[in-house]
């Protein structure tokens, strides 16, 4: 009897991989291993609706019946201690092992650790799991002041949520702008202005020297400027690191994640890696990337299932991301790192605009604030390899749609 597939990690990627294996007709054992005792759940709401609503419960990815009817063995609260790629076996913490024909590593990532004096004090928290979110929610109900370390998506989502709940919030970012590695300066500036208008204090080009407290609880953050910032809660949002230790110890190739090819195979073909921990050469940008998004995780999971079931597809999904920060829905499609010129369209003052990014004459990304139609059209255009000219984009959304429709008609009429 075949040993089947073992999936390590029960987040978005792992659950989708299990579902997709069954969708692809895979009819031998599928085991899904998660290190939490919860049913697998959606993570994006944790920084928003979950922490602001004391009655909120985790939004599960699939009902428990899904695993039963799909004959997916869900093993919760289990840690994998090592991988034996030669023997095709996973050794479990506390004893026992699981053999596999193929394994999928969907181990995700974890918050980067804060290394400064006072980092061990109570009230210093990060967010990656529902247990973390519960801790933040419970503590936020008893505090007045919060300091957020890091001006990335998670930090700003939490900052907006806490501020809306009546807390005094300060965001500290070491770089010269918020979301500096994620979005264009125009959007960074806009996000900062909206957050400050809502009462959040933002300090850029600033770091924290140390945290101070008493009786084991944090009371203040001492900024690099010397200012003492009251804080009964400090949220650390300074980035994440991929969970690749299991792979590295097993001898799999790693480089800012677990290296995979276009079919999600690692340097050991029977072992695949997907999601936040997978590093690969991206077809769209030509660069080595490791993307942290639900879309990337689930699309790679679907492809991994097809790889295991004998297909030879290559990963070519257009990357897209989103974040809800206060009254701003940010949506990004494409990868803007290689942009050499940008065009802002829409009404910034009305909190509705987009930034179109070009690399030469090629449209490579669109970043939108409260302009979902631009985002959806962008996903279609980038997926089709269509680049409207800057002049067409400047003429307005209707002109872009018309140009794209004309191009699609031309392709249909002359597919060669």
Observed structural traits:
416 residues, alpha/beta, FAD/NAD(P)-binding domain, Enolase-like, domain 1, five-stranded parallel sheet, 26 strands
Question: Could you please describe the fold and organization of this structure?
Answer:
There is one protein chain. With 416 residues, the chain is of the alpha/beta class. The chain has helices spanning 12-23, 49-52, 64-69, 130-140, 153-164, 185-197, 245-249, 294-308, 372-384, 390-394, 397-413, and strands spanning 5-8, 30-33, 72-75, 80-84, 89-92, 97-99, 102-105, 109-111, 124-125, 145-149, 168-172, 201-203, 208-214, 217-223, 228-230, 233-236, 240-242, 258-259, 271-273, 278-281, 288-289, 320-325, 328-334, 341-347, 352-359, 362-369. Helix 5 (153-164) links the parallel strand 10 and strand 11. Helix 1 runs parallel beside helix 8. The longest helix is centred in the last third of the chain and has 17 residues, at 397-413. The N and C termini lie far apart (47 Å).
Please sum up the structure shown:
This protein is of the alpha/beta class and 416 residues long. 27% of the residues lie in helices and 28% in strands.
């Amino acid at each position: 009897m075949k040993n089947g597939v073992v999936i390590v990690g029960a987040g978005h990627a792992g659950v989708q991989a299990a579902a997709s294996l069954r969708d692809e007709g895979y009819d031998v054992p599928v085991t899904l291993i998660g290190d939490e005792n919860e049913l697998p759940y959606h993570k994006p709401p944790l920084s928003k609706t979950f922490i602001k609503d004391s009655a909120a419960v985790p939004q599960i990815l699939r009902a428990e019946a899904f695993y039963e009817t799909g004959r997916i063995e869900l093993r919760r609260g289990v840690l994998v201690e090592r991988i034996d790629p030669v023997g095709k076996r996973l050794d479990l913490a506390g004893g026992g092992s699981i053999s596999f024909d193929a394994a999928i590593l969907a181990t995700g990532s974890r918050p980067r650790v804060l290394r400064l004096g006072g980092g061990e004090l109570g009230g210093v928290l990060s967010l990656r799991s529902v247990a973390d979110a519960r801790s933040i929610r419970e503590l936020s109900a008893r505090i007045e002041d919060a300091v957020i370390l890091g001006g990335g998506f998670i930090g700003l989502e939490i900052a907006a949520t806490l501020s809306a709940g009546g807390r005094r919030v300060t965001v500290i970012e070491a770089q010269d702008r918020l979301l500096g590695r994620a979005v264009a300066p125009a959007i960074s500036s806009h996000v900062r202005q909206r957050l400050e208008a809502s009462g959040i204090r933002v300090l850029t080009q600033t770091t924290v020297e140390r945290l101070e407290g008493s009786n084991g609880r944090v009371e203040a953050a001492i900024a690099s400027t010397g200012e003492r910032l009251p804080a009964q809660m400090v949220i650390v949002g300074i980035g994440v690191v991929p969970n690749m230790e299991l792979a590295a110890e097993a001898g799999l190739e790693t480089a800012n994640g677990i290296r995979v090819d276009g079919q999600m195979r690692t340097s050991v073909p029977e072992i695949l890696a997907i999601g936040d921990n997978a590093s690969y050469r991206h077809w769209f940008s030509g660069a080595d990337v490791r993307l942290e998004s639900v879309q990337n995780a689930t699309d790679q999971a679907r492809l991994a299932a097809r790889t295991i079931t004998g297909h030879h597809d290559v990963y070519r999904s257009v990357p897209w991301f989103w974040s809800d920060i206060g009254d701003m829905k940010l949506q990004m499609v494409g990868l803007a790192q290689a942009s050499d010129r940008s065009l802002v369209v829409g009404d910034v003052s009305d909190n509705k605009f987009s930034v179109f990014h070009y690399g030469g004459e090629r449209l490579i990304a669109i970043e939108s604030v409260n302009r979902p139609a631009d985002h959806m059209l962008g996903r279609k255009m980038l997926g089709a390899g269509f680049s409207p000219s800057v002049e067409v984009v400047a003429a307005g959304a209707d002109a872009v749609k018309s140009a794209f429709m004309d191009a699609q008609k031309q392709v249909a009429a002359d597919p060669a």
